[in-house]
């Protein structure tokens, strides 16, 4: 069993990074091997384009990202940053994405990771090399004032799952959502962190991921 953790928050002292640390500690406690990518610390380039693929310029009149990505797969021509991330994905059974929900979506750097790493010919498309994995989101939000707003958040998050990982045929694990952490006091935040650890243990045990 191996888990890959991706965290996308610019502040290392943020609650998102605290949740990321809880995930690492919990996996270590369960004796589960993991890899990680801290996109801001790693200065991950968020913009997909011709620079992702060595030797592709000049092969056609106009640039096509999907065609360039398939060219890179066939010719081992991705940049080292993409190759490294794809290797981590290939080696894991479960992917956990840790991020704040900004404007009902991913932070730009995480969307860039999706664009540049989950490439045509690797993660999706005919003869894609990457086998479907399991995926889970751990998300913070600005807060929900009532059940209707909580349901609205859930609908948006379900869409973020289905439009990407559902399309690729991955097994989707229900998310851990921490609403309104900026308005919470220290004790409440500590309880959320403990709840996250307990949730991870439940997910891993329920799906028998520990023994895989």
From TrEMBL:
Task: Extract the Pfam families matched here.
Answer: Flavodoxin_2
* InterPro entries in UniProt: Flavodoxin_fold (IPR003680), Flavoprotein-like_sf (IPR029039), NAD(P)H_dehydrogenase_qn (IPR051545)
Could you tell me which residue ranges the Flavodoxin-like fold domain spans? 1-196
According to its record, what are the GO cellular component terms? cytosol
Would you tell me the protein name for this molecule?
Flavodoxin-like fold domain-containing protein
Record's Gene3D superfamilies? 3.40.50.360
Does Oxidoreductase count among this protein's keywords? yes
Instruction: Note whether Oxidoreductase occurs among the keywords.
Output: yes
Gene Ontology MF term list: NAD(P)H dehydrogenase (quinone) activity
Which UniProt key words apply to this protein?
Oxidoreductase
Belongs to which family?
Belongs to the NAD(P)H dehydrogenase (quinone) family.
Question: Which organism does this record belong to?
Answer: Pseudoalteromonas luteoviolacea CPMOR-1
């Amino acid at each position: 069993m191996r888990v890959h953790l991706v965290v996308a928050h610019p502040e290392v002292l943020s609650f998102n990074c605290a949740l990321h640390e809880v995930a690492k500690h919990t996996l270590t406690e369960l004796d589960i091997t993991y890899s990680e990518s801290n996109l801001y610390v790693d200065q991950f380039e968020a913009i997909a384009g011709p620079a992702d693929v060595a030797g592709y310029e000049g092969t056609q009149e106009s640039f096509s990202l999907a065609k360039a990505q398939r060219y890179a797969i066939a010719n081992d021509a991705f940049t080292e940053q993409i190759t490294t991330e794809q290797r981590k994905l290939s080696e894991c059974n479960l992917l956990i994405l840790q991020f704040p929900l900004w404007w009902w979506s991913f932070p730009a750097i995480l969307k860039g990771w999706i664009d540049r790493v989950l490439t045509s010919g690797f993660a999706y498309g005919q003869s894609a090399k990457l086998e479907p994995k399991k995926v889970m989101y751990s998300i913070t939000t600005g807060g929900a004032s009532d059940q209707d707003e909580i349901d609205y958040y859930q609908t948006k998050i379900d869409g973020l799952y289905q439009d990407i990982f559902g399309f690729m045929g991955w097994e989707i694990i229900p998310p851990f959502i921490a609403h309104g952490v900026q308005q919470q006091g220290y004790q409440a935040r500590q309880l959320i962190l403990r709840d996250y650890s307990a949730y991870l243990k439940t997910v891993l045990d329920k799906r028998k991921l520990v023994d895989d």
